[in-house]
Design goal:
- By secondary structure, this protein is an alpha/beta fold.
- Helices cover 35% and strands 18% of the residues.
- The strands form three sheets. A six-stranded mixed sheet has the order 10-4-1-2-3-14, with helices on both faces. A six-stranded mixed sheet has the order 13-12-11-15-16-17, sandwiched between helices.
- Helix 9 packs across helix 15, helix 9 packs across helix 16 and helix 12 packs parallel to helix 14.
């Protein structure tokens, strides 16, 4: 008898709620679905996704009983003997980027050292950095910070044993300002207690984590990343107004279901998928383009020589960057301007593309409040037909991607990919080496514009990346390419500590389809 342990992984985004039903014993995907996010109670949408997957399984089983098939759910995974009751009883784990995701402010000591280190840690933790400052805070800096409306502040400052004055001053300023948000303190360990005291004596909520930069050239993001995640779960997600008081599913509230911000879960899934060989993933959305990378295992510990080439903020095994001006809908004008500045298009071409970009109107579906059976629910079908929006949500990828000019959409996507990866991989400052991506083994393209494209369209968008030797970054020499068509990486990230290594890799790679061949 086959032993199964079912878990429903859910990603609640601002536009869509996606679900992936997983057997955690094998790492197999048993069903997937999505529904417009239901505000003001996202639990309704979660239930709608779960019920849609259950109905698909029942339908697949009925067809098998009649000899019409082999018991396949709509995404092509063979199943047998799973009924609605078993799906309804499955544990639910979730991540979320709804309500604007996690808005993070970073307050550091020096712009090119601790402030930059804090920003990179914040991004890796799944935050959207809405404010970055360095040096002693003054009244104007505090007002700028207040205007950014962060959900959480990451306060950094100094290497261990270094200057403690600035971080203690900044803690005092933040305490006096009475900003009603939690603070994660990841600074010089000799200053941590004094800085925490300045905040707590004025009623601030503080979590002390390990210093993000204990020594020049050594970045240690792990403790701060975990502290940010826990602060998000304890103090932020419940205050987003995403569910009604008393709303429950399987006896748990929405805040109890969520275990990570969505980008943090995706980054962890990317780490699982990389498996030590190194990986670069670029996710093209309507408003932003996100880039994730994992350095190959043999290079993860390498550091430049001391001197002009040293990275002041170090490097680390995995990284994420968010390009807020690059997208294929609301970010389209930013793509054109950046491409012109990079010399990727001529002025005449830019004018045509800019005119098209200005005419794009965001058509993301309005959040649903009903969640009635069949109301907006989609069971994702075969790879390449994953519903109208793919990931949707924070990147605001909508069905409108199919309503514009296909050739111009692909050109925007190609430019967004090139520019975002250039920014991600280039040296952080003159004299520094680029991020070591030359020997990565896999490049993954993600986002609705790639999911819904045919083979030629995917090649048009991704192949120029492998020939971008003038882009100022370390272009992969022998990497293979793939396109993420089923969006299971977030589920692999949510379940990575519960799956065997083999099962985790199976889940992380469940949505990959081969991409264009490497030109070399």
């Amino acid at each position: 008898m086959t032993v199964r342990e079912l878990v429903l992984c859910v990603d609640v985004g601002s536009t869509f709620t996606k679900g992936v039903l997983v057997d955690v014993v094998s790492g197999e995907v048993l069903g997937t679905g999505q529904h417009p996010t239901t505000l003001p109670d996202v639990v309704v949408g979660i239930a709608a996704v779960r019920d849609a997957i259950a109905r698909a399984l029942i339908g697949a089983a009925a067809k098998a009983d009649r000899g019409l098939g082999e018991g396949q759910v709509a995404d092509g995974v063979r199943v047998a003997g799973i009924g609605a009751a078993e799906v309804e009883a499955a544990e639910i784990v979730a991540c979320s980027s709804a309500g604007g995701g996690l808005r993070l402010a970073v307050v550091g000591h020096e712009r090119l050292v601790t402030a930059e280190a804090g920003q990179r840690v914040a991004l890796s933790a799944g935050g959207r950095v809405v404010h970055l400052s360095s040096g002693p805070l003054d009244a104007a800096a505090v007002e700028s910070l207040r205007a950014a409306r962060p959900d959480l502040i990451l306060l950094t400052g100094g290497t261990d044993g270094g200057n403690a004055d600035v971080v203690v001053h900044n803690a005092r300023r933040l305490g006096i300002a009475r900003l009603p948000v939690p603070v994660v303190l990841a600074c010089n360990r000799d200053a941590a207690d004094a800085a925490a005291h300045e905040l707590r004596r004025r009623g601030r909520t503080v979590t002390i984590a390990g210093n993000v930069l204990p020594r020049i050239g050594t970045l240690e993001p792990g403790p701060a990343r975990e502290a940010i995640r826990q602060a998000f779960l304890r103090h932020v997600i419940g205050g987003k107004g995403l569910s009604r008081k008393g709303s429950r599913i399987n006896g748990r509230s929405f805040a109890q279901l969520v275990s990570a911000p969505t980008p943090d879960a995706v980054l962890t899934g990317v780490e699982v998928l990389a498996g030590g060989r190194g990986l670069l993933m670029v996710d093209v959305g309507g408003a932003t383009t996100d880039v994730y990378s994992v350095v190959p295992a043999e290079e993860a510990g390498e550091r430049p020589e001391t001197g002009a080439g040293q990275w002041a903020a170090g490097d680390w095994f995995s990284a994420r960057t968010v390009e807020g001006d690059l997208g294929v809908r609301s970010g389209a004008v930013g793509v054109v301007e950046a491409a012109l500045a990079e010399g990727l298009i001529e002025l005449e071409q830019a004018q045509e593309l800019r005119q098209y970009a200005l005419g794009l109107v965001e058509e993301a579906p309005a959040p649903s409040s009903s969640g009635q059976p069949g109301d907006g629910v989609q069971v994702w079908e075969s790879p390449g037909q994953v519903g109208q929006s793919g990931r949707g949500d924070s990147d605001q990828q909508s069905g409108s991607l199919g309503r514009g000019d296909q050739a111009l959409d692909r050109q925007l996507a190609q430019l967004a990919v090139l520019i975002a990866v250039r920014r991600h991989g280039r040296p952080t400052r003159p004299g520094s080496p680029p991020r070591p991506l030359r020997r990565i083994g896999l490049v993954v393209g993600s986002g609705g514009v790639l999911r819904h494209a045919d083979t030629k369209g995917r090649t048009d968008v991704l192949k120029p990346l492998f020939a971008d030797h003038a882009g100022g970054w370390a272009v992969p020499e022998k990497a293979t390419a793939a396109v993420d068509v089923r969006y299971t990486l977030f589920a692999a990230g949510l379940l990575h500590d519960r799956l065997s290594p083999e099962a985790a890799r199976r889940l992380a790679s469940a949505g990959l389809h081969p991409g264009p061949e490497h030109p070399g």
